[in-house]
Amino acid sequence: MSSSAEEPVQHVRVAVVGSGFGGLGAAVRLREAGVTDFVVLERAGSVGGTWRDNSYPGCACDVPSHLYSFSFAPNPDWPRTFSGQPEIRAYLERIADRFRLRPHLRLHHEVLGARWDAGRTHWELDTSQGRYTAEVLVAAGGPLSDPVVPDLPGLDGFPGEVFHSSRWNHDYDLTGKRVAVVGTGASAIQIVPAIQPRVGKLVLLQRTPPWVMPRMDRDITAAERRLYRLLPVTQRALRTALWAVREGQTGMFTKRPALLRLAERLARRNLDAHIQDPALRARLTPDYRFGCKRVLLSTSYYPALAQPNVEVVASALKEVRGSTVVGADGSEHEVDAIVFGTGFHVTDMPIGERITGAAGRTLAEEWKDGMVALRGTTVSGFPNLLMVIGPNTGLGTSSMVLQIESQLNYLVDYLRRLDATGSAALDATPEAQRRWNEEVQRRMATTVWSTGGCNSWYLDANGTNTTLWPGTTARFRRETRTVDLAEYRLVSKQAPSAPAAADAPAAADARADA
Ligand SMILES: Cc1cc2nc3c(=O)[nH]c(=O)nc-3n(C[C@H](O)[C@H](O)[C@H](O)COP(=O)(O)OP(=O)(O)OC[C@H]3O[C@@H](n4cnc5c(N)ncnc54)[C@H](O)[C@@H]3O)c2cc1C
Asked: Which atom of ligand 1 is closest in space to residue 50's alpha carbon?
C-alpha cells in the first residue's frame, strides 16, 4: 500500500535499496566509514537477495565460494568449492548479524518511487511502509531480481502448476510428474539434473544450447577448513589464486576470442563424452563461439539429458494449449507442470521506472536507447544516486562480489567528497558519462560477446551490450577507486527561498575545477 502525503517522513543521510550482496555490502562499508544514519529498504521479509529468492533444487554459485564472498568477511567454513544456496544465504544472514546491520534494516519496505527534489536537494522515497527522504540513494535492487515469464498464448489457461526458477513452489511435489523446463541458462542447467531422477518425464525446451564445461565441485574437507581457520593467510592465498586465474582468462574473452578455441574443444569433448546419441549431440551443439553466452559449469547436466525420461526439444516454447506445451517447431508435449528458467529483467530493470531524476524523467525514460552510467555507478541528471551493479559492470567469468566491492569503494569516496566540498550533491556531467560509455563500447567491440555470433541476455533490444564490463576486475577496481570531481557538477545547498524547480541553475552550482 502506498503511503499518503500526511504520513511522517523519516530523513536519513543514505537510503540503500536492497539487501543482497550489494545492499548488505554497502551497509557494512557505510558503518565502517562512520556513517550510521542510513536505512536498508528491502521489499522481502529477509536479507539475501538472489540467495533468498533462488531456492530451486540444485541452486549453487558457479564461481568458487572462496572468491564469491566478501573480501572483508572470508568464510573458512564453506562446505563445497561451489557452495549451495542455503549456505550462501546463511552467510549473508551472518553478515547482517556480525556487522550489526539489523537496526538499519527495513524489511517489507518496497521502494515504490524515488524522486530527486532539486529544491531541497534530497531524494524523496515512497515505500510500501512510509516515506523517507535521503541525501544519497544507493540503488542495489539487483541485476537479476525480477523474473521474466514470457507472455505466451494460452499460458493463463494451463491447468497445471507454473512457476519461475526464482520463485520455486516447494509445496508442489514433482515426483512422477511430467514437467516442462523452459530455457537452458545457468538456472535451468542446475535444475534439470536435480529434478530428473524424480520426475516421470522431463521435456526441456531449448532455444539455444549453452557451452558447458565440467564443474570441479567437491566437498571441502574438515582439515582444509581447520587450516583456513587457524591460518587465514592460506585462505587469502587461495582466493588470490582463484582471482588471478580468472583475471588471466579475461583477455581471451575481451580482446582475443580466437584463443577460446581450445576451451571450445574441451567443451565439445565434454559433450561427446556424455552424449552418445548423434541426433541429441547435434541438438546440444552450439552454433556460436564459446564464451559469447555465459559459459555454464556442470558435470551432471549432460548425463541427465541422456536419461530415457528426458526429451530435449530444440525449439523455443511458442504457446500452451490446455495442458499441452507447443514448441516453435510444432512439437506438442502434454505436461503437469511448467518451470520457467527464462531469466530476469536485466536491460530493462524495473527499478528504472521508479527512480525519477532532476528533470522529472525516470531512469527507464532516460535509458530508452540503452542503459548508461558513469563508471557503471552514477547517472547524469540523477544527483546523489549511486547504483550497485549498474550498466556495464557485470562479469562473464569472475565474481560479482569483486565488482560490488569496487563500487562500494567509490560510494565511500563519494560521501567523503560530498563532505569535503560542502555540496549538497554531485551530478555526473553528460560529457564525462558520454566519454566513459564511448570507451566501454569501443572496448566491447573486440569481445566475444559482440563477435561470437549469438544473441544473449547481455544485449539490449538494440543489440548493445549494456550489461558486461569489457575488462579485468583489477581495471574496474582502479577506475572506481576514487571519485574524480572533474567528472561532476557540484550542486549547492539551496537557500530556503530559492526556487524549488531549478535542477541546476548555473549560478547555484559551482563547476568543480578540482
Ligand atoms: C541463480 C543465480 C546464481 C548466481 N550465481 C552467481 C555466481 O556464482 N557468481 C556471481 O558472481 N554472480 C552470480 N549471480 C549473480 C548475482 O545476482 C550477483 O552475484 C549478486 O548476488 C547480486 O547482488 P545484488 O545485491 O546486487 O542483487 P540481489 O541479490 O538481487 O539483491 C537485490 C535486492 O533488492 C531487493 N529489491 C529490488 N527492488 C526493490 C525495491 N523496489 N524495493 C525494495 N527492495 C528491492 C530485492 O528483493 C533483493 O533482495 C547469480 C544470480 C542468480 C540469479
From this structure: 29
Q: Is the CB of 296 under 6 A from ligand 1?
A: no
Q: Is 44 in the pocket of ligand 1 (CB under 6 A)?
A: yes
Q: Is the CB of 114 under 6 A from ligand 1?
A: no
- How confident is the model over 445-499, as pLDDT tens digits? 999 999 999 998 899 999 999 999 999 999 999 999 999 999 999 999 875 543 3
For the CA atoms of 505, 384, 141, 455, the dihedral, rounded to the nearest 10 degrees, stands at 60
Which residue, by CA, sits nearest to atom 33 of ligand 1?
18
Q: Are 18 and 47 in contact (CB under 8 A)?
A: no
**Residue 489 CA to chain centroid, in angstroms?**
29
Angle at 114 between CA 110 and CA 116, to 5 degrees: 165
Helix (H, G, I), strand (E, B) or coil at 300: coil
Q: In terms of Cα–Cα distance, which of 356, 432, 475, 384 is closest to 114?
A: 356
Q: Please check whether residue 183 is in contact with residue 341, taking contact to mean a CB–CB distance below 8 angstroms.
A: yes
**Ligand 1 contacts CB of residue 355 (under 6 A):** no
Ligand 1 pocket, 399 CB below 6 A? Answer: yes
Give the closest residue (by CA) to ligand 1 atom 7: 61
What pLDDT is attached to residue 212?
A: 98
Determine the angle formed by the axes of helices 21-32 and 400-421, rounding to 10 degrees. Answer: 40
Task: Give residues with Cβ within 8 angstroms of 94, minimum separation 6.
Answer: none
Ligand 1 centre and the CA of 340: distance in Å? 18
C-alpha 333/C-alpha 154 separation (Å) is 14
Single-letter residue type at 381: G
